[in-house]
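Hey team,

Sharing the DNA-directed RNA polymerase subunit beta run so nobody has to redo it. Sequence (62 residues) first:
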Amino acid sequence: MFKKTIKFLGVRVSLLLLVLILLVAAAVFGLMLGYGVLGGGNPTHIFDRGLWHEVLNKLNPK
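Structure output:
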């Protein structure tokens, strides 16, 4: 009984981690696609900290 429970939990945790990894990958791919193709910029610039400061400053004007 205990081994079945551990196996069941292991499968659930593995599936949860897989879903989280796929969500992060989809978000990164979507950001790169949106900024690179639709926005006309360099897709690798989404990882630039200065870009995010600029975006956040536009969203939250002081």
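The chain has a mean pLDDT of 91.

Ping me if you want the raw files.
A.
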